[in-house]
Sequence to fold (295 residues):
Amino acid sequence: MRYQKMFETKKANNALAYIPFVLLGDPTFDHSFQIIEKLIESGADALELGFAFSDPVADGPVIQEASLRPLDNGFSLKDGFILIQKVRMQYPDIPIGILTYANLVFAQGISHYYAMAKEAGVDSVLVADCPVQEASLFAEQAAAHNIDTVFIAPPDATDETLAQVAKHSQGYTYVLSRKGITGTEVSANQAKTDFLEKLRTFNSAPLVQGFGISTAEHVYQAAEAGVDGVITGSALVKIINQYYNEPHIMLDAIAKYAKTIATAAHQARNLIREGLINVDSGNDQRTTVGHGATS
Fold:
């Protein structure tokens, strides 16, 4: 219900949702909580939180580097759920999603994992390395614990796969602008309109675009394509990688970046409608803002 309420509010305001991704426990438990506080205070509409994993196949080098810190510090799955519970107590209305990997779930026992997630206040779980066709065990336990199951819709998926993703993804549908791994080094391609239209034809949950979203320009392109929200991950984690030994600088940089992306997400549709943004989705993917504000 938290996702539904949030997306309804965004739709009423003609805005996209901004959903930042960070790793739990990075660089420490306390600093991780402070990072999440900054993200919410800076305009995040929901959270996507990850657990450090030794073999994160969907993640690029930025997040792989960051994963080493919680692992080296002995930050456990239990610690992560305690941290989520602390966030939930302070922010009772914000949707909280987990991005995880199948082995992390299996290691705890699927039912036990979802029970811990429910107790912590989690709204959704996305198992990044489990396609919709193989997810019945996860989906059954998610449903049993009243947790949404989120699936990824890749841009090269068949109509049959897109129909299955649309049918089973709850809370939101994670759409990719490109194939590959997460990262800021590869620019996001504007999500293909026909690909998004197919998902909507299949009555999908709200469409949220990720992978390669790192700038306000990418957000404007996503808005032009017609998605309902955007996820940024690697750009945020890159800031943490750079400044984790200087917490005050790190937190200020995170707040500044998050405000930039949140503002773009919340204003993009209206700016495009009013002709104040001309989104060029060609090869150079430049964005011009009519009143001189560029990111």
